[in-house]
Structure formats: structure tokens, C-alpha cells
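Our consortium's second objective concerns turning raw sequence data into structural hypotheses that experimental partners can test. To show how far this objective has progressed, the report includes one record in full. It was chosen at random from the queue rather than selected for favorable results. The single chain below, 216 residues long, was entered without modification.
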Amino acid sequence: MTMRRPLTGKVVIATHNAGKLREMQELLGPFGVEAVSAGELGLPEPAETGHMFAENAAIKAHAAARTTGLPALSDDSGLCVDALDGAPGLFTADWAGPAKDFPAAMGRVERELQKRGIAENGNRKAHFVSALVIAWPDGHEELFEGRVFGQVVWPPRGTEGFGYDPMFQPDGFDRTFGELSREEKHGIDWSKPEPKALSHRARAFLSLAAGCLRRA
């Protein structure tokens, strides 16, 4: 089995998304890793030209690592709706436009479902995907992925989280990600022998922590 490279010291969170940054900082908190964002450092956002979430995460992580000389952690994630052939998928952020208008993006998801005749009791299955990549300045990288399955609902409910959270209801819950607290959504009880996580990003982070992090 290939050994994972440990992540210690200072790391760049390769994102300009405030919601993602907050979640990653909270997840890294118990491990004594100092996190600074690409936005704080004034780093440009590289073009995401990959064909998979993992490829786009790697593009962002390697760009930040090369520029700063520090390890960089990047997430690329998205909402995949079964009845829309996996859309918005890689274009999850693009559907919100330059202004990051996610209420409009959620409205577009609903319109596309309605065009296909998908009513409230139709096939609204969906899942979130998160690909986390850590890249080092020497080009080494580690990849971790997580998924959470559920359905999209209309109208959106809740004001917690960000992005499409208010329209995604995970399996086994009667509330959307927008109605769950941050602790419920991605909190991890590290005191348990086998910690569990709900959100796609937290599930990917569990794998990352097991492979590359040590408790502070």
C-alpha cells in the first residue's frame, strides 16, 4: 500500500469561495494546521479546464502550490441531478453566473426539471460530489473523494450553508442542507473510533484526515 504524504504546518486553501473556506477551516481546526486562503493571498483563479471534479481540484491546488511554495488544498464539488443527466455537475458554479446568484441557479435546476415533466413526486434523485486534492510545490498530490445522496426539492428551504444547499435534502432527513446547522452538516465527532460525516466535503475530509493528518 502506498503511503500518504503527511500534511503539516501551513496550507493554502485554494478557493475564493467564502463558504468553502469556512468549512475547510472548521474541518482542519482539530489538526493544528494553519490555513490561509487563495483569496487572502491575492492569487488568481486558474481556468478549470478539467473533465472531472478531481481534475479541476488538482488544477487549483497545483496552481496555488507553485505560486506560494506551500502545500495547497483544493475542493472541486458540484450537484448532480439524475433526471438532468448529471447536470449541473462540473458547471455547478457556472449556473450561478459571474454574480454567484445561487437562487437563480436553483431556479434553473427547477425549470430544467419542469421541462422534462419532473413534478414533485417524480425522479428528483441527486447527489453532491466533493474531490479534495492536496498538492505540494514539488508536484506531489493526494486525492480524496466523497459523495452524499438525496433529492432536490422545491421551493428551497433554509438559510444555512451556501450554494444549492437549500434545495438538497439528503437521504434519511426531512430537512435540506439549508435547514441543517453547520455542525449537523459537516461536523465530525473525532472522539469516536469510527467517525462519521454527512456532507460530501466532510466525507472526503474524513479520508484525507485518515491518510494525511494527525491530531494536534
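The partners drew two points from this record. The two ends are 25 Å apart (CA to CA). The helical segments are 18-28, 53-68, 102-115, 182-186, 200-212. Both points have been shared with the crystallography group to help prioritize constructs.
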